[in-house]
Amino acid sequence: MSKENKIGPKICRIREMRGMKQEVLATALGVSQQTVSNMERSAEIEAGLLAQVAEILGVTPEAIENFSEEAVFSIINNTFQDSSSNNNNYMCTINPVDKLIEVYEENKKLYERLLEAEKSKVELLEKFFNKEK
Fold this sequence. Notes:
By secondary structure, the protein is mostly helical. Helices cover 68% and strands 0% of the residues.
C-alpha cells in the first residue's frame, strides 16, 4: 500500500500542520506517545479512533481520509497571490506616510487649540488683576 493511501501518515501531517505534538494528541486520546507514533505509521485505524482523532485535530474523518498535500498546496496557490497579480486582498490598504501626516496634522490642530485656551486664560487673569489695582 502506498504512503498516499495510508491513514497514519495523513494524521501525522495534519497534526504537524496544526502545530500539535504527538504528546498532546496522546494526552487528548488518553494513550501513550508511543501509541500515537505507532498509529501514525499505520495503514488503517478503526473508525471510532479516527473519529476521535479527527475531532481533536478539528477536522472531519473524511478530511483525514482524503487529505493530500498536493491539494493543500493547490488551495494555497489559488488563494494567496503575490503583489504582481491583480488580487490586492492581502495587500496593505493604507499608506503609512499619509497616516503619519494625518496624525501630525491632528496634533498640530490640538496644539493650536491648547495655545488658544492658554491665551484666553492669560487674558482673563490680566483682566482680573487689572480690576484689582
